[in-house]
Amino acid sequence: MDKISTDHYPSRETRETEKRAGASVRQREAYYSPRSVYADEGEAAHERRQPSRGRGGAGKSSRKGIRKGLSESWREMSHVLGNKQLAFDKPLVIIVMLLLALGLIMVYSASYAYAYYNNGDSMYYIKRQIVFAAIGVLAMIGISTVPPRRLKGKPTYFVLGISYFLLVAVLFLPRVQGVRRWINLGFTTFQPSEIAKFAAILICATYISNHYKEMNVTSYPNVETKLKANRSPFAHWRYSMRRNFVTAVVPFIVILGPMLALVVIEPHLSCTILLMLIIGTQMYLGGTRKEYFIGLGVLAAIAVYLVIFTDIVPYGSTRIKVWQDPFVDPLGDGWQNIQSLYAISSGGLFGVGLGNSRQKYLYISEPQNDFIFAVVCEELGLIGAMAIILLFAAFIWRGFTVSVSNPDRFCKLVGIGITSQIGFQMILNICVVTNMVPNTGISLPFFSSGGTSLTMLLAEIGVLLAISRSSPNKVI
């Protein structure tokens, strides 16, 4: 036995056949490569934008050159948008636009009373949300025309560096509502954790696509090691576990462990949980052995216990008590949970009607944010709430379909990561609103008010649409 696993290595006969085939094998690989979809126009336009190496070409930066570069980019974008072969998945676009439209409607319905009371303008939140939604849609369309493979490499490390810089910088800013999660931009606030989610997806996809064989196939470095490892099944298992730990666990701890620590220090428990779920999903897809997930799960449970019950997060133990019995403090920490449950129970099967919620009149605190789903349940009832959940389920299905069918491993992992992020976030928010888990302060994608988070979310959807362009299972 030359290798612990040979699932990902072709046999000697297969390698000889492919070697004899030569050109036909290369043709087949080129045909299934996502880069070939953009090669004729996109890559050619990119090459034309490079500075000339002749006299004065490399260092000049003039208005004419910038204008020419923008013109080339616009022509490239126009070509991709107008090319039937490069069209993105229509069901995915329709689902996203439906979720966005429903989200805007519910933001207005849930926020106008609160906005009028606090700002004197019932349209305060919806106007801002529409502006950011428009910016996000434009970003989504623009990003969807860029080959997703260009995100690999330097762009990934740039996004990771920016996220680390912002996560450190926010810790030195004044507290907002007792925590350090937001950076005040003047016209709005921004959460560095929004970039951290995307950075985690990109860096995981980059590492796994570069080291997939090392994570899944362990070759013996020499005959002596082979003989030692094959002395017994236990020795073989121990050797493979050690190799898998080095290649499929340690790199993620080293690269992303500090990110999780910084988010905990803010503190932002919901984002910490979401990041752990995203990273864990990517590690599982990359080839990390199941035994390590059991160990990491035990460590995570111990860490959560210590964070909550040793006052590292002061409000942790209080929220656990309120989750177990909201009426233990009905006018304090249990108020939000109680009012959310009242709103859900008032909705019944068909709801009280769009705009007719009673709990949004200063009973639910900031009803346009984390607890907007309670207003959805009250106004649209069980039928409306289930329709929205099914719409999210349809999005997850289409996102996974176009991602898994993409022939490029990096694109596949990025698409699955983005889809998983939105799916996990939706599930956690609904569980919080229905008091199935303790209140962690996590938003509902497309619905909760928040300009920069919505823009960032739509930009990620743009990446997912770009991935769908080169997926064979798309519907156009």
Describe it for me?
This protein has helices at 12-21, 23-32, 35-48, 63-82, 90-119, 124-144, 154-169, 192-216, 223-229, 233-248, 250-265, 269-286, 290-309, 316-324, 335-347, 372-404, 409-433, 451-469; strands at residues 183-184, 189-190. With 476 residues, it is mainly α. It has one domain (90-469). It starts with 11 loop residues before the first helix and ends in a 7-residue tail after the last helix.
Q: Which shape, going by the Cα principal axes? A: globular
N-to-C CA distance: 47 Å
Low-confidence stretches: 1-9, 23-62
What share of residues are in beta strands? under 5%
- The amount of helix comes to 55-70%
Strand order across the largest sheet: 1-2
Count of helical stretches: 18
Oligomeric status: single chain
Number of domains: 1
Largest sheet: 2 strands, antiparallel
Radius of gyration: 25 Å
